[in-house]
Amino acid sequence: MRIRRLLPLLVLVAALPARGALFDDEEARKRVEALRAEVTARMEKLEAASRGQIELANQIEALKAEVAKLRGQVEVLTYEIESTQKRQKDFYVDLDNRLRKLEPQAGAEGKPADARPAVDPAAETRDYEAALNLFKAGKHKDALAAFLAFIKAYPASPFLPSAHYWAGSAHYQLGEYKKAMELFAKLAATWPDDAKAPDALLGQANCQQESGDARGARKTLEALVAKYPASAAATVAKQRLAKRR
Predict the structure, then answer these.
(1) Is the domain covering 119-243 a CATH 2.60.40.3880 domain?
(2) What residue spans define the domains of the chain?
(3) Most buried pick, 36, 139, 153, 157, via CB within 10 A?
(4) How confident is the prediction for the chain on average, in pLDDT?
(5) Rounded to two decimals, what is the model's pTM?
(6) How many CB atoms lie within 10 A of CB 121?
């Protein structure tokens, strides 16, 4: 009788280890799945980070190339700004000199010492600026005609060196290198102290190079550097000479 009462208890005790084993296997599977999910998530993060590093490296290289390009543009703009500032300074200096020359000068009898007809300063400045605006607009043929007419109409103008320079530049743009060279050479020889003289020598070297006279171009660049070492044109000449060594 006692054995019958204990039988259910014995069956329950025998079943306990099996249930415990089943519970342990389920828990282990859950942990394995959790670890697998964690490893997968970490791998995905690593792959994403790797892709991000590659994209960042590509962006850095692109930025380096852009910076190099911008540096080149800055150098060009700096030269253009310096040239523009010098032209403006020359313009006001020439204008002041021209106004001084136009002041009435009386001779011993109270008559003007110079019998030449007076030049209208406003017309002179207007004609020069009109020719220069044509050049800036890319109308080189019209600009050339305007500057040549200016040179003829105002032979004593303080703008004469600049007029020669822009006329030579117009010839150069039209591919007329020999005529351009003549005007550049005349400017450098006639007005060596003018602010345009260094630019004229650089323009002369350009014409010689375009005409196939590399040796002559080199000599002109060397003369430019020797005579006007502090000019912006000399800086360009030095760079070109360095490349030819």
Answers:
(1) no
(2) 12-79, 119-243
(3) 157
(4) 80
(5) 0.55
(6) 13
